[in-house]
Amino acid sequence: MHRVRTAGGTPILLAPPDAEHASLASEHAELCDAFVFTGGGDPDTSKFSVPTHPSANVEHPDRQAYETALLTHLADHAPDKPVLGVCLGMQMMTLVAGGSLDQHMPDTTPTHAEHMDDHTHPIALIDPHPVLSEGLVTSWHRQAVNNAGSLRVIARAPDKIIEAIDDPTRRFYLGVQWHPERTDNHPMGQAIFDALVAATRT
User: Fold this and answer.
1) Where do the domains of the chain lie?
2) pLDDT tens across 36-62, in order?
3) Is the pTM for the entire model greater than 0.85?
4) Listing from the earlier edge strand, what are the strands of the sheet with 35-37?
5) What is the CATH code of the structural domain delimited by 2-9+19-199?
């Protein structure tokens, strides 16, 4: 929330309801000018017709249902509202877009430890991007996107882990696997929140 306020926005914490996720998500979609889907646990991929890895630290089902409903509503009814997904948020964007995850990087990625415990590592852009640049980022994740579905892959780590995705048909729809709120490198940290808030004013 501090990063949004620093960028000139007024942060509002949206708590997931106990029920009626879709109806509340539609109300929130109208209420707010932009959305940040934050980090958290791991998605329950069984809700997307893929078995959940036994090592997954599954996020609360009410939160996942609400965020799925909100992402879906924004895509269908408010695609011009700016959206930033961080870590779990990027993974939820991917699943809603028909993509898939590597659910346990220790099984598949020898360099998985470089993405945990607030380690820093570089990323490289696949193509120039109006918001992102290249540099060091701070990460903490055991899962990663391995297929972005209908979204576009725009950045990778040196070990080829997908680090950022977007939807070029929407005004601002960006997912980053790292934690910009904990990244000291300004272009890959605060500047992303600055761009999100600025997009609400264009």
Assistant:
1) 2-9+19-199
2) 999 999 999 999 999 999 999 999 999
3) yes
4) 35-37, 83-86, 173-176, 162-166, 152-156, 119-125, 135-139
5) 3.40.50.880
